[in-house]
Design a protein that fits this description.
Chain B: This is DNA-directed RNA polymerase III subunit RPC6. Chain A has helices spanning 3-17, 19-31, 36-43, 47-59, 82-86, 91-116, 121-135, 145-157, 225-237, 253-272, 275-287, 304-310, 319-331, 352-372, 374-386, 391-398, 402-414, 442-470, 472-490, 495-502, 507-548; strands at residues 34-35, 63-66, 77-80, 119-120, 161-163, 248-251, 302-303, 337-341, 347-350, 419-424, 434-439. Chain A is mostly helical. In chain B, a hairpin with a 2-residue loop joins β8 (170-171) and β9. Classes of the chains: A mainly alpha, B alpha+beta.
């Protein structure tokens, strides 16, 4: 993990889980797999705090444990996974996607699972039903468990949720001499995974268990608060079983990523061509959702007949027109769609890796354009197309005066967006007898931009924390005043008392609070925007990794 | 065919026979304006000995009335232009030599150092001769656009070649960037309006796409009719402008096979250009100040430049 990634992971852990978890997590990220004693020794934290932090990390899937590498009898080692921690940044996007696809129920299910890490189906259903019922308080209805269960099943069918892999060989039944793993069930979730098994290698990964769960969501009344707590405690110790003990579910991030990737390709087609073409591509991708493996270069071939039958009913275009659109898509220089054969009216595939490469290239070009100007962007695109060029050729092709072109090239070179390749004419690299060619390598540049994205998000988070810290006093004051107001309202105070309390915050303070709120919102939304760029670049980099593997 | 010179000063009494042979050779030259070979002279005057023939030819050469040329089959003698002969009157052989070298360089011109190599004359002599010729308005110096200090010499009445002046985009050695920009925008507007018109026509998609294409010939005609250019632009010039639009990401190009003889086709192909929309919106990274920050690499927490005290962020947040 690079330093920037570790920094970002540390900030995310601190925001979501606190400083102790941050300390343990960053230590593990920096030093690789370690056993419990070493962690305690090197972080200087007490044993129970380290245990709890490891529990939290394991619960969220950010940390794996396995038996020691040095052979049997070795204590178990813990390894943190930085990728999983970076996903925390993308939680809002996952929740929003679930909302668009499956409505409020889906949104809450995903939100609960993201917050808790691993949960059983029955507990998820109950919690979500309770929350929905609370929201519907004004309408006097309550949410039925079966509705939530059906939404859950739909999510599992489309593979957005998956089972956590069950406790397998990591249980060390063979070597009884090893001490029991410290992260044993004090917590509701006990997932385990060896480094080799993925959740998908288990056949029941996407099978919905049969549970008996009948009832409705409970409404929470403020007067029942005390009762509720008691009943909550009772529920924990209550041996009420629903038939799915030990089956824990987690969010399938890969599936969400495939969905995001498809969306990116569809919107690119819509921008470049037109709406109908993007609908055709959307249909093709929908049909290949479950048949294409995540790392495939292109989708399985689909015949034009199948595409015609699967188009949404609202788009009633004639068959010959569809053929024309498909030909247009194939002829487009961006090569989103390719033709794989002639049977069935023409077999078509969506070129996923190529589309990702084109999107990554467009991202790089846009980054250069915004930062350095459109003429530098012209030089950058020219070098991307023509691979290697001498300085004189760059000036001629780009039609930029020599002095300015030289300046721009050197700026790009100093920022490492453009590289210099020397080709000597003589064995001694005499400058007057060497060719100097400028070139752009797309993959290393994409990686560099990705690291910049990590640093940018870390900067934004730090700025947000700084702004909050600066106005801490003001925020506390406003919170106190709100609490006073709320209690006064409940106890039925007069309007004059309320206004008197409200005026305790002066107008400039109110303004300051307002601007603080705006700043924080802006920083938050900026983080999400940078995360979109991060996703594109990460998908591109991983697609090249698999195609060369 | 290269000219060879032998500056041979022959001071000999010319016998009557020699004079006759000279006149005869001159007549032959006038008869065959393209030049005569040694063989022709020999056939005409078989009684003439080779030495005397050579002497006669040398005399004519030194008088400046004959040109000595070499081609693949041997030496050629050609009558010199009376006009050019008069031009060189009064100049000595060295100047004639230099002039000849410059003439051979055609419209690309030749650098003074190259003249020195070819004529083996010392530098001072060359400079004197060049100044002399320039004052007589026989040659001129043209500044090359490639290296601004270099001066190439060529004959006075020749048009300098494009590679020297830089062609249509240079005027007086200055790259006309505004001109290029204007042309750029005009071409783009033309292609964009064409694409918009075809999109609004609501015909079948194939027809739509084909009608949004414009050949390079059409664009060239449009630009010529606009009349914004003072110089005549060729189709190649327009194609270089269209290429810059491709590098701007605003235009894409395809090549189709075209019948020979259709207007605008070159070697059986035609280039078609079409305005396109960008594939993605500006990426998320550049919507933050960090994406555009010039001191991005120097920024870290606790340093002089850090996210907490970043002035760009402060401005951006208050925006």
């Amino acid at each position: 993990m690079t330093a920037q990634e570790v920094r970002l992971c540390g900030l995310l852990l601190r925001e979501h889980f606190g400083e102790v978890v941050e300390k343990v997590g960053t230590h593990l990220l920096r030093s690789g797999a370690q056993n419990l004693r070493t962690i305690i020794h090197e972080t200087g934290l007490p044993l129970d705090l380290v245990k709890k932090s490891l529990c939290v990390l394991v619960q969220h899937g950010a940390c794996n444990f396995r038996s020691g590498r040095k052979g049997p009898g070795c204590p178990t080692e813990y390894q943190a996974s930085g990728d999983r921690i970076l996903r925390i940044l993308r939680y809002p996007r996952y929740i929003y996607t679930a909302k668009t696809l499956y409505g409020d129920t889906g949104e809450l299910i995903i939100e609960e699972l993201l917050q808790r890490g691993h949960m059983t189906m029955s507990s998820t259903v109950k919690t979500v039903a309770d929350r929905l019922t609370q929201n519907m308080e004004g309408q006097g209805r309550s949410m039925d468990y079966s509705e939530v269960t059906s939404a859950f099943s739909k999510l599992v069918e489309t593979q957005f949720l998956q089972r956590c892999p069950p406790m397998g060989g990591a249980r060390n039944t063979k070597d009884s001499g090893s001490p029991p793993t410290p992260s044993t069930p004090a917590t509701p979730g006990t997932p385990a995974s060896t480094a080799l098994l993925t959740p998908e290698s288990f056949p029941d990964c996407y099978k919905v268990p049969h549970i008996t769960l009948i009832g409705r969501g409970k409404r929470r009344h403020s007067s029942d608060d005390g009762e509720d707590q008691k009943s909550a405690k009772k529920a924990k110790m209550d041996p009420e079983t629903h038939g799915d003990e030990g089956i824990y579910w987690q969010v399938n991030f890969e599936r969400f990523h495939l969905h995001f990737r498809d969306q990116a390709v569809i919107s690119a087609v819509a921008n470049k061509l037109d709406q109908t073409c993007s609908e055709i591509v959307r249909t093709m991708l929908r049909m290949s959702e479950v048949t294409t493996s995540p790392s495939a270069t292109c989708t399985k071939p689909l015949s034009a007949n199948e595409i015609f039958r699967s188009l949404p009913a609202s788009y009633n275009i004639l068959r010959p027109i569809l053929d024309q659109y498909l030909t247009l898509l194939v002829d487009d220089p961006m090569e989103f769609v390719g033709k794989a054969g002639e049977s069935g009216g023409g077999m078509f595939v969506v070129n996923l890796h190529r589309a990702l490469a084109n999107l990554a290239r467009a991202t790089l070009e846009s980054a250069v354009q915004e930062r350095f100007g459109s003429r530098s962007a012209r030089i950058f695109r020219l070098l991307l197309r023509k691979r290697h060029l001498e300085q004189k050729q760059v000036e001629d092709f780009a039609m930029i005066p020599a002095k300015e072109a030289k300046d721009m090239l050197y700026t790009l070179l100093s920022q490492n967006l453009v590289q210099l390749q020397e080709i000597p004419k003589t064995p001694d690299y005499a400058p007057s007898r060497t060719f100097y060619l400028y070139t752009v390598n797309q993959l290393p540049t994409a990686r560099m931009l990705l690291q910049n994205c990590y640093k940018t998000v870390a900067n934004l988070i730090e700025r947000r924390l700084f702004e909050t810290k600066e106005s801490k006093r003001l925020l506390e004051k406003s919170q106190r005043i709100e609490a006073i107001l709320a209690s006064l309202q409940v106890s039925g105070a007069e309007p004059e008392q309320l206004t008197e309390v409200e005026e305790m915050i002066t107008a400039p303070e109110k303004q300051q609070l307002e601007s603080l709120r705006l700043h924080i919102n802006k920083l938050d939304s900026a983080e999400n925007q940078v995360d979109e760029t991060m996703f594109l670049l990460e998908a591109y980099v991983s697609s090249t990794a698999t195609s060369t593997a | 065919m290269q000219s060879l010179y032998r500056t041979v000063m022959v001071k000999k009494e010319l016998s009557r026979k020699a004079k006759l042979s000279i006149y005869r050779i001159r007549e032959l030259c006038q008869q065959f304006p393209h030049g005569i070979t040694d063989q022709v002279i020999q056939n005409d005057m078989p009684h003439l000995e080779p030495q005397q023939r050579a002497a006669a030819i040398n005399k004519l050469l030194s008088l400046g009335q004959l040109d000595l040329l070499r081609n693949s089959s041997g030496l050629l003698y050609r009558m010199k232009d009376a006009q050019s002969a008069s031009k060189m009157k009064g100049s000595d052989n060295q100047e004639k030599l230099v002039y000849q070298i410059i003439e051979d360089a055609g419209n690309k011109g030749i650098w003074s150092r190259d003249i020195r190599f070819k004529s083996n004359l010392p530098l001072t002599e060359i400079n004197k001769i060049l100044k002399n010729l320039e004052s007589k308005k026989l040659i001129k110096a043209v500044k090359s656009v490639a290296a601004s200090k270099k001066k190439v010499y060529m004959l006075y009445n020749l048009q300098p070649d494009r590679s020297v002046t830089g062609g249509a985009w240079y005027s007086d050695q200055d790259f006309e960037s505004e001109f290029v920009e204007v042309l750029n925008q005009q071409c783009f507007k033309f292609l964009q309006t064409k694409a918009d018109m075809s999109r609004d026509s609501k015909q079948s998609p194939m027809v739509q796409r084909n009608s949004s294409f414009a050949t390079s010939h059409e664009v060239w005609k449009y630009i010529c009719e606009l009349g914004i250019s003072k110089v005549d632009l060729s189709m190649d010039d327009i194609e270089t402008i269209l290429n810059t639009l491709i590098y701007d990401g605003k235009v894409e190009m395809t090549v189709i096979a075209a019948k020979e003889g259709t207007v605008g086709s070159v070697d059986g192909q035609m280039k078609l250009y079409r305005g396109v929309n960008p594939v993605i919106q500006p990426t998320g990274l550049v919507k933050t100040p960090c994406g555009l920050c010039p001191v991005f690499d120097d920024c870290h927490e606790g340093g002089e430049i850090s996210p907490s005290n970043c002035i760009y962020m402060t401005e951006w947040l208050d925006f």
